[in-house]
Amino acid sequence: MPDLNVEQQLVIQDIKTKFSWSIIIRYVVAIISAILLFVSGYSGSISGTGIYLILYLFSYNIFANLIVFFKKHFSLLQIVVLGWLFQLLDLVSITFLIYITGWLESPYWFLYLVLIILSGFGVFSYYSISVLIIAFISTCFYLGLLFAAYFKFLPVYGPDFRLTPQELLLSIYNKAVFASIAFFLLAITIYYFSKLLNQQREELTARNLKLTVALEKMKDVDRLKDEFVATASHELRTPLSVIRENVALIKDGITGSVNEKQLQLLISTHANIDRLAGILNNLLDVSKIESHLFNLNRQPCDLCQIAKCSIDFMTINAQKKNITLKLTCPQKSINLIDQEQISRVFINLIDNAIKYSPDNTVINISIEDNPTQSQVSIEDQSNGIASEDLPKLFERFVHIRKDTNAAAEGSGLGLSICKGIIELHGGKIWAESKLGVGNKFIFTLPKIGE
């Protein structure tokens, strides 16, 4: 039922938008008509009737404008009835325009046909049957004018009615047949095509509804998965901490002496427990970022100082491969940031650069300080990443680079977390790469006050 209500609201909004546009078009038509009437220099009764017609058009259009302005919410029935009402008033305007400009010889009689076409294709009406209703009313109005002229209920305008009553009756008959056939042949044709369009629209609406339901189910599944990951990660941390402490006690000989082989196994176990704890922490952070529960402790910090500390932290890893970490930055670059989390981004990106860079190479870390933002780039000399793989880099659990120089693959969460942290700060992060040349990871951070 909620989906049907949403669909109905979309239909109402669509008709209301078309209704608003028709109001603007009527104003334009009325203004142009007034200008043309003034410039043409019509005299006598035709001029007076033309002025009344323009005033009539203005009056009901202002009424329509007031309704749309003051009534913000419509039901489907209300907006459809309102649309049909103003189509009827448009038909009256067109009828009298034809009446004062030459009947069937009038250059404006085709406006009936235009309104039929617009109604049939849903420009002014939502339902296909409206095209036949408009055609019927148009025919009645036109024939009514002809017979009103014959019985002298209305004064006769136009060159064809300087005739005897018998000639006038024959003219009315011929024009009646022509007008009726023209209106209804066109209306039936348009009705057929509009029905086809409506069938397509209904099919698309049904498919869209199915897709919406499927999407909601997928969102529920994704939410349950995230909740499971977050809960499992949280629940695993406590027993893992106990295991880590127990292994540490045994490794340190607190519970008794251990031989060399046992010590090596305990050291390896301790290291893998730490690695598993890191993965669990990353899973929790990803869950918090996606749930918008990741809190930042923002303070004015020097980005250059954070970069220097991160480089010092990673120097030992770089020295193992004889890699030089080179920093280029201004004296200061003050930003309103969470120092711990931005340091985490630096360390993750530098660690990846070291991991995938060949020995005896240089990693360039540079900071550009601009009035509105700071831009950081970390450029290595690795084998590079294929252009088609670049968009996948910051997705969760994605492993793309298979460099032979690289250490063991990680959890595939590091870059996803970096992206989340930078975007929470209001910045952007992306990667540039050339195969055989290297990678360049870039992120920006807004300045204080932005």
Structure description:
With 450 residues, this protein is of the alpha+beta class. It has 2 domains: 215 residues, no CATH class; 148 residues, Heat Shock Protein 90. It has 10 helices and 7 strands. The strands form 2 sheets. The protein has a 5-stranded mixed sheet with strand order 2-4-5-7-6. Strands 1-3 form a two-stranded antiparallel ribbon. β6 and β7 form a beta hairpin. α1 runs antiparallel to α2 and α1 runs parallel beside α3. The two termini are 44 Å apart. About 1% of the residues have low confidence.
Order of helices and strands: HHHHHHHEHEEHEEHEE
Radius of gyration from CA coordinates: 38 Å
Largest sheet: 5 strands, mixed
Summed up, the helix count is 10
Keywords:
Heat Shock Protein 90; two-stranded antiparallel ribbon; 10% strand; alpha+beta; 2 domains; 450 residues; five-stranded mixed β-sheet; 10 helices; 64% helix
SSE map:
Blueprint: H1 2-40, H2 44-70, H3 76-100, H4 110-120, H5 130-150, H6 165-251, H7 260-290, E1 299-302, H8 303-320, E2 324-328, E3 334-337, H9 339-356, E4 362-369, E5 373-379, H10 414-424, E6 428-434, E7 438-446
Parallel strand pairs: 2-4
Antiparallel strand pairs: 1-3, 4-5, 5-7, 6-7
Brief sketch in words of this structure:
Helices cover 64% and strands 10% of the residues. The protein has 450 residues and is an alpha+beta fold. It has a five-stranded mixed beta sheet with strand order 2-4-5-7-6.
